[in-house]
């Protein structure tokens, strides 16, 4: 569980049809979330597909990030229809470093091994959520690792740290990830470039 970043941490830019956020993964923790999902499945949430996003906690050192992902995954794999491994939030220190080839390969290998452990009755598909700020080398490495590990899909993309020309100039300099209309062209281009690399080997979700 963690409180996330200090408020204010979400800024609406209506003239740009955009949002800047630095929420910081505010949440009640994987154990509470797993119980909440299980309860929902017995009630009004029955039959509704649920995808769960996991990432390292803010206080977790980068060298223990995979352990953090695994702890959350093991708690949630029995209730989630899809688990999304998030290595692309700009608001958790060091998280995007997990997109580098060696770190990503190790993380995905460990999560997929945990998915296939005995006792997991309905192993959920594992998707990877990436940043829109990757260069060509980064896109190559992520695509190669995704294909090597045979993950179930990619989500393209998270929010961007870049700041295109925005009408709401007074808010443009707020730190955090930018989403909305200003990101559409960039995220769509990254989606196309990922498709060029992985083809129809796995589903791609454009965000």
End-to-end CA span: 26 Å
- Unreliable residue stretches: none
Main pleated sheet: 5 strands, parallel
Proportion of β residues?
15-25%
Number of helices: 6
- Gyration radius, in Å: 17 Å
Identify the overall geometry: globular
Order of helices and strands: EEHEHEHEHEHEHE
Structural class call reads alpha/beta
Order of neighbouring strands in the sheet with most strands: 3-4-5-6-8
- The total count of strands amounts to 8
Helicity, in percent? 25-40%
Average pLDDT: 94
What does this structure look like?
The protein is α/β, with parallel strands linked by helices. The protein is built from six helices and eight strands. Strands 3-4-5-6-8 form a five-stranded parallel sheet. The chain has a three-stranded antiparallel sheet with strand order 1-2-7, with no helix packed on it. Strand 3, helix 2 and strand 4 (about 80-85) form a beta-alpha-beta unit.
């Amino acid at each position: 569980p963690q409180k996330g970043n200090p408020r204010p941490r979400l800024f609406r830019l209506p003239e740009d049809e955009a949002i800047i956020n630095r929420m910081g993964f505010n949440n009640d923790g994987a154990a509470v979330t797993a119980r909440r999902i299980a309860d929902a499945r017995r009630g009004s949430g029955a039959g509704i597909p649920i995808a769960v996003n996991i990432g390292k906690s803010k206080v977790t050192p980068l060298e223990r990030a995979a352990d953090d992902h695994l702890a959350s995954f093991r708690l949630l794999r029995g209730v989630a229809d899809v688990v999304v491994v998030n290595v692309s939030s700009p608001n958790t220190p060091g998280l995007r470093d997990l997109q580098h080839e060696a770190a990503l390969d190790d993380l995905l290998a460990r999560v997929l091994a945990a998915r296939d452990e005995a006792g997991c009755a309905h192993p959920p598909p594992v998707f990877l959520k990436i940043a829109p700020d990757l260069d060509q080398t980064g896109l190559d490495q992520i695509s190669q690792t995704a294909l090597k590990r045979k993950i179930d899909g990619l989500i393209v993309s998270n929010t961007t740290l870049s700041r295109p020309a925005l009408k709401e100039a007074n808010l443009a300099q707020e730190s955090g990830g930018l989403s909305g209309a200003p990101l559409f062209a960039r995220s769509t281009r990254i989606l196309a470039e990922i498709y060029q690399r992985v083809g129809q080997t796995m589903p791609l979700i454009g965000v």
